[in-house]
Amino acid sequence: MRLNALLDAWSGWLTLFPPAHAAALGDLLLRLSPLFEPLRRQAGPQALEPAGIGDIVARGSYERLLTSEWALLDAAPDEFLRRAANGELLFTGPEPMHSEESLRSIALFDAGPSQLGEARLVHMAMLILLARRAELAGAQFQWGVLQQPGLLHDELGAKGVRLLLDARTLEAADAAAIEAWDAALADASDCWVIGDPDAARPHAARAQVALRRSWLDAGLEVTLTQRGRSRTLALPLPAPADCVRLLRAPFEPPSKAAVTRHGSNAHSLKRPPMFSGYGGWLAAGMVDGSVTVYNLPASLRAAPGRPRNGGKLPHVDAIVAAGAFDNAFGALAMADGALHPFGFPGRFFNKIGKATLPLPARDEFEAVPGALRWAQAFFLRRETGSVFTEYLLVLDKTGRLVCWTRSSQKRGLPPVTTEFRVIAKHVIGAVQHGQRLLFAVGIPGRTDAYILPAGHDKPGHLLSVTQDGQRFLFGRLHDWTASNGMYALQTSDTEWRVGEGLHAARIKVDADHAVLGCARRIDGEAPGLVVLEQSRTRIALYLTQQRITLVETTEPIAQAAFDPLKNRLAWLGRNSTMLTVRGLADAQPLLQTIPQGDAGANTARDNDRYDDAS
Questions:
Q1: CA nearest neighbour of 449 among 438, 434, 437, 435
Q2: How many CB atoms lie within 10 A of CB 99?
Q3: 0.70 exceeded by the pTM?
Q4: Mean pLDDT comparison of 367-371, 380-384, 421-425, highest-scoring range
Q5: What domains can be seen in the chain, in order of their start residue?
Q6: Does 128 score more than 60 pLDDT?
Q7: What distance in Å separates the CA atoms of residue 581 and residue 296, rounded to the nearest whole number?
Q8: What does the mean pLDDT of the chain come to?
Q9: Any idea which of 42-51, 64-73, 111-120 has the lowest mean pLDDT?
Q10: Dist. CA 328–CA 310, nearest whole Å
Q11: Contacts with 399 (C-beta within 8 Å, 6 or more apart), sequence order
């Protein structure tokens, strides 16, 4: 890798990184390095007693007169007096008992919650700059983490960077940790603290690099204090995707997007793609009436699995509800006055004709076959002892969440019982996470979030918001516990309440925009709304005071979907029908599927209209 000549001083570090990462990190180093003063040695105190003979000099105390001069006094007293009068006598020059102190430079990093996100990029740069500064002065360099008192590391290079990035924590350094550092650093002469400007720091840390978010732009404000002098720098940051890659996989190069090609078939634009509630899979409809299920790679470095196409769906025009479940696409169709579930990954709801269900009364379940937007279907299962149970749940168009339950006393036997029940009414949002269902109920003046794990008859209460809403979106599904979890509640046509637990902010979105989900782009960032704008060429993250572009395309987006489990986006191009899947903070797609030959041109009749709503 060929580096800019200005970066030669840190070439030993930057060559550890892929070229794209090295360029982004090198820019930070060039901007930050002028703030530092060099590390200088300090002389120790001079003792009264000499440590030895350092030289022969023409002046000095007669106690240090050379022995040969004393011999001259005995042999030729007059010559001795003449030489003494003329300053010609010779003396030993003392070596004073002092030397320059051995140098040791120490850097302490605040890995607490105020330093999550982009601030850790500056931590990485400071590790490199302070290590190089100590090297130039011939000093020993060690580093530690404020939240780990007394533990100092000598590791540098790739291992040191990984240790530093992995040290992040949600706890701030308390008084006990600072006191422990005071005891450990009693003899430190050059000690730095890098982190929150308002956090406590050890007394020995006389130098500081304070980091805070800039009020004026998306960068950081860096204040360096050394020897009583402070300097402040407005530090611009690399592109968001570069920031994320540097923090998540600093030493691994970004890989190319996995691309698959279809033959004579192309994606339908009538409905958006569907992410699996189990993670790792995506289902997309095709123009011939079939559904292709894609195995998504876990990261940019992984290869995708082979897509599956189960052939044309039976009763495709009569489908009421559908969903994706791992490598399966399950649907509920209506025909001849009955409901026909098929394709679900269990034993009891997987084949047409085998699992026919009677159609409930209209006041219990509203079936709308063939609609542009299918109702959401969910599938749970549980095995307890010898009883094997499956649950097919549907959220219908009127907000009823209903469930069909089928059980068998032994694995492999046909079901012996079938039950239907209405779980909740006025449901304004639901999402599946593994073997549990999260849903929200809106009533005048209040919105409640619930959890229904497989095998439980009654849902458990999670969260109450004292405000009624039109729509509820769940975010960061792994974090949803009692009274906590990221969510977005639509309170009017243009206003949303977005936050975690009882702490939320208000975000306004134009009524013509389509809200896909709620998420945070990177750790430490406030939660926001993932919005497909009216232009259909831009997907952005809407925060309270900021709009961050996530996707910008030249081809209009026909349909888009967001996965709150893996923080991924999927969208279909209006002209090419190309399907693209990308992580929320990634610059490159995880997967792109491109129709081959004239497949895109053959979709005109099928895609002459589609649902613009998200």
A1: 438
A2: 12
A3: no
A4: 421-425
A5: 5-36+100-248 (no CATH), 55-94 (no CATH), 258-603 (2.130.10)
A6: yes
A7: 8
A8: 84
A9: 42-51
A10: 9
A11: 425, 426, 427, 428
